[in-house]
Design brief:
The chain is an alpha/beta fold. It contains 14 helices and 8 strands. The chain has a single domain, classed as Rossmann fold. About 6% of the residues have low confidence.
C-alpha cells in the first residue's frame, strides 16, 4: 500500500531519533522479493552546458513522443528550485520528492499525471536532500522507486543546466546522457566544458547530441560536427548524433499555451522531429544486467 511506504519511512526516522543508532531494515516475509522487479528500465539524463537551449522542452516532448509510441514514461524534474517542467505544462503539484523523503507521502502519491499518459515526479527541493540521507533512508527510497518498475519503460531525468555537482550525479547514474545544444557559441563551448568534466572527473564517455532550434536538418548536423570534431580531437571521445529539432513557430505557441508541441501541433516540423528522435531512442540497445534496473540508477545517485 502507498501509505505503508510513507509510514515505514516515518517509523524508521522515529526509531533513529529515539535510539540514536542506525535502525535495522525491516525483514521481509517469506516469498517477498527483495527487488520488486527485474524488468529493465531505460534511464535517460537530458542536460545542457547552459540554460536557454530548450532542454526542458526536449525532455517533455521526448517523453510525450515516447508515450505516444506506447512506452510508459516517467519524467523526473531534477532542476532544483526552478520546476521548469511544472511551468511548461501548467502544473501546480501539491507534493514533491521532499515529502517522500520526510515520510509524509509515498512516491506513488506524489506522482503527477502528465500529457499523453506520462507521469511526472516534481522533484524540486527534494533532489538536493537525496545526497544527505542515511543509509537506511536510501534503501527506503530505492525500494520506493523499484516499486514503479513494473509499470515503467523509460525514466527521463531533466537535469539542471551547466556544470554542477547535481548534474554530474544524475548523468553518472543514468544509462544514457543527451546533451542539448543550439546555434550559439556559448552553447557549444559550454557543452564541451560539461562533456569534459563528465569524462575526466566521472569517467563518462558516451554522449548523444541533440541540436535544438536549428534552421533544418543540415544545420543541426553542422552544429553536431563542430562539437564532435573538437571533442574527438581533445578528449578522444566520439559523440553520437541523436537528431535535430528545427525552430518552429508552433513551438512558441505551444509554450505559451503550456502544451507540448507534440500534442499542440503534431503535424508541425518540430513535433515530427521529436517523433523521429523517439524512434532513434527506441533503437538503442536495452541495458542488460543490474545496470538495467531502476534500483541501480537510484543507488548510483546516493553513491555519486
Amino acid at each position: 500500500m502507498h501509505s505503508d511506504q510513507a509510514e515505514g519511512l516515518r517509523a524508521l526516522k522515529k526509531q533513529a531519533a529515539t535510539t540514536g543508532a542506525e535502525p535495522q531494515a525491516p525483514t521481509r516475509d517469506a516469498g517477498e522479493k527483495a527487488i520488486p522487479s527485474a524488468r529493465p528500465v531505460r534511464v535517460i539524463a537530458v542536460t545542457s552546458g547552459k540554460g536557454g537551449v530548450g532542454k526542458t522542452n526536449v525532455s517533455v516532448n521526448l517523453g510525450v513522443a515516447l508515450s505516444q509510441r506506447g512506452k510508459r514514461v516517467l519524467l523526473m524534474d531534477a532542476d532544483m528550485g526552478l520546476a521548469n517542467v511544472d511551468i511548461m505544462l501548467g502544473l501546480s503539484p501539491k507534493y514533491n520528492l521532499s515529502h517522500v523523503l520526510d515520510g509524509v507521502k509515498s512516491l506513488k502519491e506524489v506522482l503527477v499525471k502528465g500529457p499523453a499518459g506520462m507521469q511526472i515526479i516534481p522533484a524540486a527541493s527534494g533532489v538536493k536532500r537525496m545526497a544527505e540521507l542515511s543509509a537506511l533512508e536510501n534503501a527506503g527510497i530505492v525500494h520506493a522507486f523499484s516499486e514503479l518498475a513494473d509499470a515503467l519503460d523509460v525514466l527521463i531525468v531533466d537535469t539542471a543546466a551547466g556544470i554542477a555537482s547535481s548534474v554530474a550525479t544524475f548523468c553518472q547514474a543514468a544509462q544514457e546522457v543527451v546533451v542539448v545544444v543550439c546555434d550559439e557559441p556559448a552553447s557549444l563551448t559550454d557543452a564541451y566544458a560539461l562533456i569534459k568534466v563528465l569524462n575526466q572527473d566521472y569517467q563518462l564517455s558516451r554522449f548523444h547530441i541533440l541540436a535544438n532550434m536549428t534552421q533544418n536538418e543540415q544545420h543541426g548536423r553542422k552544429l553536431f560536427l563542430k562539437l564532435a570534431t573538437v571533442t574527438e580531437k581533445f578528449l578522444n571521445i566520439q559523440l553520437k548524433y541523436l537528431g535535430t529539432v528545427p525552430y518552429d513557430a508552433a513551438l512558441k505557441q505551444a509554450v505559451r499555451k503550456q502544451v507540448p508541441v507534440t500534442l499542440f501541433k503534431p503535424d508541425s516540423s518540430a513535433a515530427q522531429a521529436f517523433t523521429h528522435i523517439a524512434q532513434q531512442v527506441e533503437r538503442w540497445p536495452m541495458p542488460q544486467g543490474a545496470s538495467g534496473h531502476i534500483q541501480f540508477f537510484i543507488e548510483n545517485l546516493f553513491q555519486g
